[in-house]
Design brief:
This protein is α+β, with helices and mostly antiparallel strands. Helices cover 36% and strands 17% of the residues. It starts with 10 loop residues before the first helix and ends in a 21-residue tail after the last strand.
């Protein structure tokens, strides 16, 4: 009689593979989450810079930052997929555009702003983040742009 060949994996081999996949996921998931967060922050500060530029264009045309109804001369656009809500407050000679993180997108506690002088400020970041008030903090370690 010939010995019968058995194919397949043993339970021990499968457990080793599962353990390796779990370790790799534990390493990769926090890095991926931080990457997505930084991408959303960069989108917000890009929208703030764009809003400032459009407000300055409006000021050059109208000589005020507000329209006839007392609102900002430029209203930032928004969509359901945005991770930040961009709002504007203005007087005739000043404005502040603020981006506030949306909780549903995991951006709670992030608040950034820019004004008519171009001053970039980080108003709030989550607990555990380092923050510099006079720039836009984009990473947990306090890196600014």
């Amino acid at each position: 009689m010939m010995p019968r060949s058995v194919g397949g994996f043993t339970l021990l081999e499968m457990m080793i593979v599962v353990a390796i996949v779990a370790i790799l996921a534990a390493i990769a998931l926090p890095s991926y989450t931080a990457y997505v967060q930084r991408t959303r922050i960069l989108d917000a500060v890009t929208r703030l810079s764009d809003a400032r530029s459009r407000m300055e264009d409006y000021f050059l045309d109208e000589r005020v930052y507000v329209d006839a109804s007392g609102h900002c001369g430029f209203l930032p656009s928004a969509s359901a997929t945005d991770a930040f809500i961009v709002q504007c407050e203005a007087t005739a000679t000043t404005f502040t555009v603020t981006a506030t993180g949306v909780a549903a997108k995991g951006m709670t506690d992030f608040v950034y702003a820019i004004d008519q002088s171009g001053a970039r400020t980080t108003l709030a970041v989550p607990r555990g983040w380092s923050r510099s008030a006079d720039c836009w903090t984009i990473r947990q370690d306090g890196l600014c742009v």
